[in-house]
Amino acid sequence: MLDAESKGALKERRVLVTGGAGFIGSEVVRQLYELEADVTVLDNFSSGKMDYIKKFHDVKVVEGDVCDYEVVSKTLEDQELVVHLAALPFIPDCYHHPDEFFRVNAMGTVNMVWESIRSETIERFVHVSSSEVYGTARYVPMDEEHPTRPNSTYAVSKLAADRAVFAMHKEHGFPAVIVRPFNSYGPNVTQPYIIPEITLQLLSANDRIRLGNVESSRDFTYVTDTAQGIIVALTSKNAVGETINLGSGREIKIRDLIFLMAGFLEKQVKIERDPTRVRPYDVERLLCDYTKARDILKWEPKVSLEEGLRKTIEWMMKHPVGFKGPFKGWYQSYYGRA
Ligand SMILES: NC(=O)c1ccc[n+]([C@@H]2O[C@H](COP(=O)([O-])OP(=O)(O)OC[C@H]3O[C@@H](n4cnc5c(N)ncnc54)[C@H](O)[C@@H]3O)[C@@H](O)[C@H]2O)c1
User: Fold this and answer.
1) Domain limits at 273?
2) Coil vs helix vs strand at 203
3) What's the pLDDT tens digit per position in 53-66?
4) Does some domain include residue 298?
5) How many domains is the chain partitioned into structurally?
6) Residues 269-304: pLDDT tens digits?
7) Whole-number Å distance between alpha carbons of 334 and 111
8) Residue 259 is part of a domain; what is its CATH number?
9) Are 152 and 214 within one domain?
């Protein structure tokens, strides 16, 4: 949690947020803005949306690629703190573009860290990794010692980035923290993740929900909680060099999630298996042990799944979303979106 000291510690601090126009990034930016930090966003808007951050008038926006040395080194000039979120995060896209996922997620991260080290001004670098680095649960709940057996090239690229940040922290005494969020959900949707996907299908006239594997289970964290964990890691005293899970500690099967969400809309639905949506080599189960986050960051999730889902559905009813991006994942053929 942000105590009074941490709140003060961020006031007028210069914070660079990569991927700040994205789903989690825009919530990180919103919270930093409220803490009166001096925020700069670096984003190439491949999935991020200017609409999500333009209301924060003092936030500076640099349109650019985290893989571009010149843009990154120039943007880092005089920054003090970095939150690195920019990545290609939507797993079905990585089946078609594994090279691009490695370029952005792994090399983009190495570039961000290396240029941060070279800038000599960065006092803390929070790298946003992912629970996907673990692969499917070998035991539950999953702590940070859980083996890393990633199940997709997305997850492998995130693991490469995660361990590169750690190695560069050790090699150069670079003050980095690695956080591993479990699945996040909430407003400012950018990707057809499972909760936006179910919501869109529920909001359509259809009473059939067509999905791939609905027997798998996930641990969902509301985005305000995820963002708060990331922000606390910017100032928390004992976090440097640590790898820390952020999750809710509650798992739910996708099947049960669908019925829970349908209940909020008072809809009777039938689930149909769509073989074109089955993710090959999918993660079957994720459940977070966030003891370390509680001990080191004094962080705990505050928003229940029920409350968070209601807020997400409400937001999506008011904000029609389209998904952009250069890729041709399965969702585009399904929706016919360009
Ligand atoms: N959403 C989740 O459930 C979840 C869970 C665990 C980890 N993460 C991680 O959190 C981060 C943010 O994910 P998100 O869900 O908000 O996705 P997102 O797609 O909304 O955010 C990614 C942002 O990065 C930007 N971006 C992409 N490539 C870029 C590049 N080359 N240069 C500059 N900017 C670029 C996009 O435009 C977007 O604004 C990612 O690193 C992701 O791996 C997300």
Assistant:
1) 194-218+250-285+305-326+330-334
2) helix
3) 999 999 999 999 99
4) no
5) 2
6) 999 999 888 899 999 999 999 999 999 999 999 999
7) 35
8) 3.90.25.10
9) no
Instruction: Specify whether 97 is located in the same domain as 207.
Output: no
What local confidence, expressed as pLDDT, does residue 49 receive? Answer: 95
How far away, in angstroms, is 86 Cα from ligand 1 center?
5
Cα 14 to middle of ligand 1, angstroms? 21
The band of 112, judged by pLDDT with boundaries at 50, 70 and 90, is: very high
CATH code: domain of residue 49: 3.40.50.720
Asked if residue 334 lies in contact with residue 280, where contact means CB atoms within 8 angstroms, the answer is no
pTM above 0.90, yes or no: yes
Residues 166 and 33 placed together within one structural domain of the fold: yes
Q: What is the mean pLDDT of the chain?
A: 94
pLDDT level of residue 334 (50, 70, 90 thresholds):
very low
Provide the strand spans (E) within the chain: 14-18, 38-43, 60-63, 81-84, 124-128, 176-181, 184-185, 208-211, 217-218, 221-222, 243-246, 252-253, 270-273
The residues lining ligand 1, judged by C-beta closer than 6 Å to any ligand atom, are 18-19, 21-25, 43-48, 65-67, 85-89, 104, 108, 128, 130, 158, 181, 183-184, 190-191
Task: Please tell me the distance between residue 87's alpha carbon and the centre of ligand 1 in angstroms.
Answer: 4
